[in-house]
Amino acid sequence: MSGRGLTDEDLERYSRNILLPQVGVAGQKKLLASSALVVGAGGLGSAALSYLAAAGVGRIGIADGDRVELSNLNRQVLHGAADVGRPKVESAREAVLAINPACRVEVIGRRLTGETVRRTVRGWDVVLDAADNFPTRFIVSDACWLEEVPLVSAGVVGFQGQLLTVLPKADNPCYRCLIPEPPTDQFTATCAQAGVLGAAVGVLGSLQAVEAIKVLLGIGHGFERRLFVYNALEGKAQVLQRVKDPACALCGPKATITDVLEYRATCCPGGVCGPDGCCVPAEEPGKKRRKSARQRGRKGR
Predict the structure, then answer these.
(1) Closest Cα partner for 273 from 94, 82, 135?
(2) Residue 297 DSSP code
(3) Which domains does the chain have, with CATH numbers?
C-alpha cells in the first residue's frame, strides 16, 4: 500500500467512498495504490473503466487492438462520434483521464496472443475480461490462473449477460470449470450477428467494476463460486452456484494445461479470421480461399 496520505482534493473527490464503513480512509488509500487491467475497451470496458477511474484505482491498464467504428457507439460510451477511426485505447485513455486526471493509465494497443498474454496480466492486482470473443476470454482466463491474478469476466449478447469472478486458489473453480473449451461458432453469436442492447452491456460492465473494487478492497461476497445471469428483456437476474471440476484440465489435481493455449477466432459461421483480422470463408477442398476485405482494398468487418 502506498505510504502517502490523502490530500484535501482526495478527501473531497472520494468522500462518498470514504463514508462507507467498508472502505474508509484506509480502503481509499488501498484503491489509490492498486492496479486494474481491463482487456477490451468496448461496451463492457467503457462502463468498467469509467467506474474504476471514478473510484480512484490508481493504475489502470487498457488493452485493445481495435479502432472505433460507428456501430460501436450504441454501447461503447467512452468513445464519441469524433473518435470513429481512432484506436480505442487512445480515446479510452482520454476519457478515463477526463474522469480522473490522477489515474496512471497504461495502454496496450494490440490484440493479446498466447505468447504475450501471461506477461501482460502479470503484476496487476485484478484483471477484467471485457473481451467480445471466446478465444480472448480463454487466453486471458488461463493466463490469470497461471499467474495467480484475480479475474472478473463478463459477456453480453442481445438482452442477456453473465458475470463471474475467478480467484486463483486451489479450492476455487477456474473459468474452465464452467466452460471447459471455447464453444464452436454454431453455438455462439457475436453482437454483430445477434445485436445487443447497449444499456444491458452497461449493467454488466458496471457490475464488473463493483466486483473488481471488492476484490481490491478484500470486502463483501463475490462471484468466485457463483455465476450471475442477467436477462434485461424479462427483468430477471439469477445467481447460480459454480463448483470446482475435479477433472479440470487447468486447475484439477491432474491438470494438463501448464501454459496458455491459443484458439483461432471466428467472426462468422463457417469462417476463420485471417492474419489481418478479417473473416474469410473456410477453405473447401479443391478451392482457393477468397481474399479478405482488406486484401481487396476495402474495409473489413
Answers:
(1) 135
(2) T
(3) 34-247 (3.40.50.720)
